[in-house]
Amino acid sequence: MKIDRRSFLAFSVGGAAGTALSPLPWKLTDDSSIWSQRWPWVPIPADGAIGYVRSTCTLCPGGCGITVRKIDDRPVKIEGQEGHPISQGGVCLLGTAGLQFLYGPSRVRTPLKRTGDRGQGRWTQIGWEAALNETAEKLNTLRAEGHPQGLACMAGTEHGTLPALLKRFMTVYGSPNFIGPASAKEAQETALRAMAGVDGTVGFEIAKADLILSFGSGLLDGWGSPVRMFETFSNRQDRKTQVVQIDSRLSNTAAKSDRWVPINPGTEGNLALGIAHHIISESLHNKAFVDNFSGGFDSFKQKVLSDFSPAKVADITGIPIDTISELALKFATSHRPLAICGRGRGNTPGALFETMAVLALNALVGNLNADGGLRMLPKPNYISWPDPEMDQIASEGITQPRMDGAGSEQFFYARSLPNRFFQQIEAGQSQVPEILLVTDANPLFTLRDTKAVKAALDQIPFIVSFSSFMDETAQQADLILPDHIFLERFQDVSAPAGFTRPFIGLTRPVVAPQYNTRHLGDVIIALGGQLEGTIGKAFGWDNYLACLKDTLGGKWEGMIEKGFWMDDHFAFPSWDTMFTTDTGRFEFNGENVDADPWKATAAAEGDSSTFPLILVPYDSIRLASGSIGNPPFMMKIVADSVLVKNDIFVQINPETARKYQLSDGQLAILTTPKGEATVRIHLFEGIMPGLVAMPTGLGHTAFDDFLAGKGVNVNELIGPLEDAASGFDAAWGIRVKLAKA
């Protein structure tokens, strides 16, 4: 089934995907269920009793509530869970196709041990006992040698009991090297810690704002909870909410916004401070907040007025001075304005400069912890385990410097820097871990400069993957100890980016494990029991389910019934108590930021004389671009202006095409300082001249024949740019040249 772009936009936005407002979403979910049942590896259920199980989808960070329809014990369809506070009965395309992950051919069905060279795909089956024994032996040996800090763990999420168990394991083992994700969510939380002193999460009351100024956030392209964003967009006219999308290309979000403001990519932070310049110079800021509850405003004001004048910002961003002034006036005089950032889905963090600039813009109009504004939520505190007993090896190892530099004096606020972890190893500037554990992450596909990531992985002697699928990183492992997928396990799920209430979702099994897989939580507890020293004492539960029940305590019964827990009565603190900086105020310039926070992001990598164009990645709701790849059903609805057979299309403006004598559909060679690829040209009026846009989520070399070999992974062509203030990957694109193939 094909859905063209216009129909898809109407479906996504006008119909509030996955609800009963339109027959099309139900037709789509029915088609997905029927279509998935026709593959030879999928069992066809016999007639039987119909039942439903409530759970939570974890295929993306959205955390949507789902209801799984079953025939006897066989799940046959995934629907949205009615009344769920995040997704409100909706389900996105990826969630709809979730059953294909349960039965698909890319699943790792039993523990595997590598027998050939890395990447050759030569494996032998190994029993769970033998696999755990081999892993425990390696870990015990490393510890006995006095180098526990030689263990590193890379995880795809920072919050919840599973990451907490992994962190606990790393702590009692003696390694500081737990590497969590780095995304726009983490960057926003870093800005929050630096400027407000709040160790928590950032929420955006999008549904209550009357003006949303989006600095590149793909609200309809997979940002936050996709279904929640669809619903918010579809009803915004009733709320008289205006959306201004600031973006270098006409994304789906820009097309459905009230106004699209084209901008030179990578200059969003400059625009935010240019808007701040107008607000401050015209005395339009919230004086009650600035005078009584903020610090550092005078120096911030001086910096903004001297370095971010409308003329300078107009020259940098490509946005006319009148437009900058108009946006500033509109933002400052709206009743409930809200500024958000995080390019596309927000899978990469960007520079601290940008997130701090947007947070400062919200502070200027006094919308912090206000209706329709930016909410500051405390860090989830339901995991309150007793401190573990530390032996001497662990106590010494945990004090060693982290391999990625996060938390150091230079990068004080950063918790994890995954790109820097691999770049430092590849460049010979960091200790090479002896053992790497990887769970819920696929860095060899998702991180920039995949060649450098591969080179770093090649240096690590022993890699253990807990992936449920044969993804790119799992292909490089020495052992694969496959986890259950989300339809087969219990797990607590944190709220998605931007949600504005304390919330915990619950994933629960809707079917017994289909293969010889094992819950990651049970594996951690079992491994802890096999290691020497005091490690085993840190895991006093018989299994993960007992741990989860104990941790959730009184919340458990309600979550089993409803599928989630939410604090409806949470009271946000007022301005006089909400900030926990040293001064007790909102600090415009941040605290303990080693580098100048107002130094703009570095230019895109590459020499403009050799690479005259700029390549920017873009996200699409039809392409999964995280650790999970597209299931077969979703590949069927990728537009033919994005992918035809195995050829990927890049978008360029017709003016650019004329300059380089390129025509629509023509094959071309795209070259960056990091690599080269053959692409097809798609002429698109909705992209600024001089830019080349490539979709994310394609170019897999792993998974199955329905996904592997299709298109190009844009991360092979873009390298990271280290942000001096945070250590985050600040790259928003790279310089490129195009030539006829």
The best one-word shape is globular
Low-confidence stretches: 1-37
The biggest sheet amounts to: 7 strands, mixed
Compute the number of strand runs: 28
Strand arrangement across the biggest beta sheet: 5-4-17-16-15-6-7
- End-to-end span in angstroms? 31 Å
Mean pLDDT: 91
- The percent of residues in helical segments reads 25-40%
Spatial extent as radius of gyration: 25 Å
Please describe what this structure looks like.
The chain is an alpha/beta fold. The protein is built from 25 helices and 28 strands. The strands form seven sheets. The protein has a seven-stranded mixed β-sheet with strand order 5-4-17-16-15-6-7, covered by helices on one side. A seven-stranded mixed β-sheet has the order 23-24-26-25-28-22-27. Strands 11-10-9-13 form a four-stranded parallel β-sheet. It is globular. The model is unreliable at 1-37 (pLDDT under 50).
